[in-house]
């Protein structure tokens, strides 16, 4: 596949944009380096690059594009919003409509606040939890990604129950020491951490269904234990649903039918982003009335935003949710995903490639290993070189995946049976190539 123009643009980008990309996940560093593909157009399930190659897209912009690229209903909403002015700096009726839609779909949220990214949403839930509990520490789970604010860019220390160490330069150790990292799906480790630091833990933060080291379901009872233990020690529960909200059904992980006992697993605060902006920048957080009333102008926890709740993002978000309200959309995404994952499993077996697939409705992750993946250690213990080779083989056959072994494949409402057949044909040839 000829990508001469992409390569030239990458050289040019390197001169002006740090690393040539505006988010490190877009670089090809995790799959052996080289020029990422520069796209010029996207429609439905497809991308076209600057050399006019077509790709079936499973990146979905890391999640938000669940209705496919340039969905007409979403595009129309953005055009109409733009024609009426993109930013007011005043309240609008649209924000109320969207807040009501979110509350109806995620009943643990009595009150909502819009921000501009998932990072902001998560960062603020932590501030609110600290303000409410008057405590400082946060417990998070290894491998869960919660955006790039200081407190959540912290890795586990050397033991299961140690204070964190910074995961990025520029984060003071003193901040990292406010964070405790424990393994996902491990309630005893959580209990151990709470036993040690419980008096000063403001919140336990988790992706209730993980999307950042593959797609990983909580083990039965894990979220119940997490909520029970947190409350026992006076800590709030924060769900980071930036990926999971509206991903598996019209609602969030906390109300997903795959998890029982919805009341017992309801969090105090929820962070949202991605899908709820229909492809424009957005974030939101919400929670119980009592906790949310900590936020300014009602309470002492300050949070603000010039762009927050802007009519363009809110209109795109409402339109996206309206598409997702149509009957059968999630069922169809799931049907096609099952066909795709069944096919991938079969071809991997045929060519002797160890492959574990974690599928949750219309999304899944591919782990090149022959063991289950239920936590970050198991996700790390997979063959990254084989994933990199598969990624490139698929790209060269017109299938766009995220350039990291930890990222998910996302289907959209735009994918068709033909796209799945095309992808499976590419996958068979790719497995054959990498098995050599
Ligand atoms: N939380 C989760 C679970 C995420 O996956 C991400 C981004 O991938 C974020 C938070 C940060 O969101 P944003 O990139 O919009 O800042």
From TrEMBL:
Essential cofactor(s): pyridoxal 5'-phosphate
GO molecular-function terms, A-Z: glutamate-1-semialdehyde 2,1-aminomutase activity
UniProt EC number: 5.4.3.8
PANTHER family: GLUTAMATE-1-SEMIALDEHYDE 2,1-AMINOMUTASE (PTHR43713), GLUTAMATE-1-SEMIALDEHYDE 2,1-AMINOMUTASE 2 (PTHR43713:SF1)
Subunit text: Homodimer.
Range of residues in the leader sequence: none
Family per record: Belongs to the class-III pyridoxal-phosphate-dependent aminotransferase family. HemL subfamily.
Compartments where found: Cytoplasm
Catalytic activity annotation: (S)-4-amino-5-oxopentanoate = 5-aminolevulinate
Domain of life assignment: Bacteria
CDD domains xref list: OAT_like
Cross-referenced NCBIfam families: hemL, PRK00062.1, PRK12389.1
Keywords of the record: Cytoplasm, Isomerase, Porphyrin biosynthesis, Pyridoxal phosphate
Modified residues (N6-(pyridoxal phosphate)lysine): 274
Protein's name in the database: Glutamate-1-semialdehyde 2,1-aminomutase
Pfam families on file: Aminotran_3
Keyword Isomerase: yes
């Amino acid at each position: 596949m000829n990508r001469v123009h992409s390569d030239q643009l990458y050289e040019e980008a390197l001169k002006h944009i740090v690393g040539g990309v505006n988010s490190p996940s877009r670089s090809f560093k995790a799959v052996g380096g080289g020029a990422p593909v520069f796209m010029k157009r996207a429609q439905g399930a497809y991308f076209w690059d600057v050399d006019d190659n077509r790709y079936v897209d499973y990146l979905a912009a890391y999640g938000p594009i669940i209705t496919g690229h340039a969905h007409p209903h979403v595009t129309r909403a953005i055009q109409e919003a733009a024609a009426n002015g993109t930013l007011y700096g005043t309240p609008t009726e649209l924000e109320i409509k969207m807040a009501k839609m979110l509350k109806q779909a995620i009943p643990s949220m009595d009150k909502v606040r819009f921000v501009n990214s998932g990072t902001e949403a998560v960062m603020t839930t932590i501030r609110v939890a600290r303000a409410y509990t008057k405590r400082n520490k946060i417990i998070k789970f290894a491998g869960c990604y919660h955006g790039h604010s200081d407190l959540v860019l912290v890795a586990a220390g050397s033991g299961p129950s140690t204070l964190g160490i910074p995961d990025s330069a520029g984060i003071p150790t003193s901040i990292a020491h406010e964070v405790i990292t424990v393994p996902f799906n491990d309630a005893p480790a959580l209990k151990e951490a709470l036993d040690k630091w419980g008096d000063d833990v403001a919140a336990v933060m988790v992706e209730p269904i993980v999307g950042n080291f593959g797609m990983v379901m909580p083990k039965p009872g894990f979220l119940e234990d997490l909520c029970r233990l947190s409350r026992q020690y006076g800590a709030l529960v924060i769900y980071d649903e930036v990926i999971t909200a509206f991903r598996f059904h019209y609602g969030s992980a906390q109300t997903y039918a795959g998890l029982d006992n919805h009341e017992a697993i309801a969090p105090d605060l929820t962070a949202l982003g991605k899908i709820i902006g229909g492809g424009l920048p957005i974030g939101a957080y919400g929670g119980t009335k009592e906790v949310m009333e900590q936020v300014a102008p009602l309470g002492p926890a300050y949070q603000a935003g010039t762009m927050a709740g802007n009519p363009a993002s809110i209109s795109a978000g409402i339109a996206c949710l309206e598409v997702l309200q149509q009957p059968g959309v999630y069922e169809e995404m799931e049907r096609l995903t099952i066909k795709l994952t069944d096919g991938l499993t079969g071809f991997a077996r045929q060519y002797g490639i160890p492959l574990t697939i974690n599928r949750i409705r219309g999304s899944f992750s591919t782990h090149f290993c022959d063991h289950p993946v239920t936590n970050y250690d198991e996700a790390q213990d997979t063959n990254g070189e084989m994933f990199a080779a598969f990624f490139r083989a698929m790209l060269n056959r017109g299938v766009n995946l995220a350039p990291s072994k930890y990222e998910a494949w996302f289907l959209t409402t735009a994918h068709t049976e033909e796209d799945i057949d095309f992808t499976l044909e590419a996958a068979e040839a790719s497995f054959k190539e990498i098995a050599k």
